[in-house]
Every structure is written in C-alpha cells, then in structure tokens.
Write a structure and sequence with these properties.
78% helix, 65 residues, mainly alpha, elongated
Length: 65
C-alpha cells in the first residue's frame, strides 16, 4: 500500500464519535439529526463525505482486482 493510499484510507475512516452518532440515528428518530449531530460533536456532511469516499475506494479496489 502506498503512502497516498494509506492517507486516503485514513481520511475515509469514521471516528468513534461519528460511529456512535450513526448508531444513535439508526436506533432512534432521525427528525432531529442535525441537532443530535451537534450534541454528539460531529458533522453530518463530513460523515456522508467519508462514507462516499469509502464507497468509491471500494469500487476502485474491486475494479483493479
């Protein structure tokens, strides 16, 4: 794995706070998602961007193998 790939993978990793927030959203009502995100100290848009990067990384990896 190259340094660039490693750094890209690290940028795509969700933090513990972000994972806890996602668990909370899955288990509860998401009507107050942005308010809950603030309470958890996370950013919804950042989480979505990381998940998108993970998806693209996985698609690229699958195409190469």
């Amino acid at each position: 794995m190259s340094v660039t790939n490693y750094l890209e993978n690290e940028l795509s990793r969700l933090t513990v706070k972000e994972l806890q927030f996602l668990e909370h959203i899955i288990k509860n009502n998401i009507d107050s998602m942005y308010n809950d995100a603030h309470r958890f100290g996370v950013n919804v848009d950042t989480i979505l961007a990381k998940l998108q990067r993970q998806k693209l990384n996985q698609l690229n990896w699958n195409m190469l193998n």
